[in-house]
UniProtKB/TrEMBL annotation:
GO terms for molecular function: aspartic-type endopeptidase activity; methyltransferase activity. The chain crosses the membrane at residues 100-118, 124-141, 153-171, 191-217, 229-248. Gene3D superfamilies: 1.20.120.1220. It comes from the Bacteria. InterPro entries: Peptidase_A24A_bac (IPR014032), Prepilin_IV_endopep_pep (IPR000045), Prepilin_pept_A24_N (IPR010627), Prepilin_peptidase/N-MTase (IPR050882). It catalyses: Typically cleaves a -Gly-|-Phe- bond to release an N-terminal, basic peptide of 5-8 residues from type IV prepilin, and then N-methylates the new N-terminal amino group, the methyl donor being S-adenosyl-L-methionine. This is Prepilin leader peptidase/N-methyltransferase. GO terms for biological process: methylation; signal peptide processing.
Length: 258
């Protein structure tokens, strides 16, 4: 029942995230105008707005002008639903589940926006500094998990400060958008524990390095090419969310063999 509910919710949120990803970087309203074809501006019929099914029904083309509709739209919807289900499997019916579903949603939106325009919009990141603590508050109160709440706040301060120092030491390699996102990720990873905080941070830089080397090897980037780091930060946090324990155990076994 839980997986079905969050899966349907994920599809609906994914449909909304498509609007967020397209409009927020442009400073456009999320409410007006209603969904429409960017080519002919014809409004999208309500039944064509059904996640995934609408795109399949239209065979990936506008109902009015037959302009192609990117396959990214249904993939975002399916990806968000899959991530919601994975998060639900991780936390179950817990008071902290809404906070983690919010994380899954903003992770999808921020990663794709950063890939598109090399920017992590304040309109999503900054409100998260209020939204995330508010979503975690019921877990702190109902489950009396005060230590997790305090650890999250410390993690937020630590990771924000770490990225801030990096941005000051090497301003060309770290944008302030990454610094602001780091505070939000520090809150989430700190809530999980110190090991997830360390794993998520290290994984971000490892993934970022791998992506940079791969792009340069493929001739798609040079040493001075600006590359988005937000997706690596978010992917690192997801790795920590789902695999921090086995990664920590593996690394400990290498340092301290039996």
């Amino acid at each position: 029942m839980l997986f079905a509910l969050v899966g349907v919710l994920g599809l609906a949120i994914g449909s909304f995230l498509n609007v967020v990803i397209h409009r927020v970087p442009r400073g456009e309203s999320l409410l007006r105008p209603a969904s429409h074809c960017p080519q002919c501006t014809a409004p999208v019929r309500p039944w064509h707005n059904v996640p995934v099914a609408g795109w399949l029904l239209l065979r990936g083309r506008c109902a009015d002008c037959a302009a192609p509709i990117s396959v990214r739209y249904p993939l975002v919807e399916l990806g968000t639903a899959a991530l919601f289900v994975a998060v639900a499997a991780r936390f179950g019916w817990s008071a902290s589940l809404p906070a983690w579903l919010y994380f899954a949603a903003i992770a999808v939106a921020l990663a794709l926006i950063d890939l598109d325009v090399l920017r992590l919009p304040n309109a999503i990141v900054l409100p998260s500094y209020l939204v995330v603590p508010a979503l975690f508050l019921p877990a702190v109160v109902l489950e009396r998990d005060w230590s997790a709440g305090l650890r999250g706040l410390v993690g937020m301060a630590v990771l924000f400060s770490f990225y801030l120092v990096l941005s000051l030491v090497y301003p060309g390699g770290m944008g302030f958008g990454d610094v602001k996102l780091a505070g939000v990720l520090g809150l989430y990873l700190g809530w999980l524990g110190w090991a997830p905080l360390a794993v998520g941070t290290l994984a971000a830089f490892l993934l970022g390095g791998i992506a940079g080397v791969a792009l340069m090897a493929g001739g798609r980037a040079g040493r001075k090419t600006a590359l988005p780091f937000g997706p690596s930060m978010l992917a690192g946090a997801l790795i920590a969310l789902f695999a921090a324990a086995p990664i920590t155990d593996w690394y400990t076994s290498i340092l301290l063999p039996a």
